[in-house]
Prior knowledge:
Chain A has no helices and eleven strands. By secondary structure, chain A is mostly beta strands. Chain A is globular.
Amino acid sequence: KNQVEQSPQSLIILEGKNCTLQCNYTVSPFSNLRWYKQDTGRGPVSLTIMTFSENTKSNGRYTATLDADTKQSSLHITASQLSDSASYICVASMIKAAGNKLTFGGGTRVLVKP
Amino acid sequence: GAGVSQSPSNKVTEKGKDVELRCDPISGHTALYWYRQRLGQGLEFLIYFQGNSAPDKSGLPSDRFSAERTGESVSTLTIQRTQQEDSAVYLCASGPGGWGYGYTFGSGTRLTVV
């Protein structure tokens, strides 16, 4: 069964601190993995997308890693800001031949406090 | 337009009424998803369109839910005889359907059944 599991479910951090979110997936055949940021009341916005051959990708203060062997990904937020408070969703995609389907994780809610 | 457009942004309806939600995907995107997001919960897959292929309707929760899309154009999600449990944000996402590409989400339609 194709699944994406994220941890922790929620996280509270102080402004300026770093944090790391985890994502484990069992999607097969795997194509790529995306991290989305979803602000309250808004649609998800893409942060990074990585294929199986990429190990790390950065987008500003966000750095995603991917280990295709262990089927794990992480999203690291550096020097957190209040605006980082949001849900972060990990999404794994199957290859086009399988319909390019997306499998969503349940998300990690991040609250950054001053 | 440059993004995925959903309308209406908000809809309040009486229990038992039918509602129709609209999604305008990015021009040229062959893939289109509908998701439902209940308050404080993750994204729940509803239906997936890929070009002219038969849609994947496996996520539709009941026969009160239906969706249509002609080719690569607008999609409509219809909920008949709405119930209070249908209250949620309904999100639409479109993508080019190619390997390695990301999907773009609309801002969603917030449906409230009273």
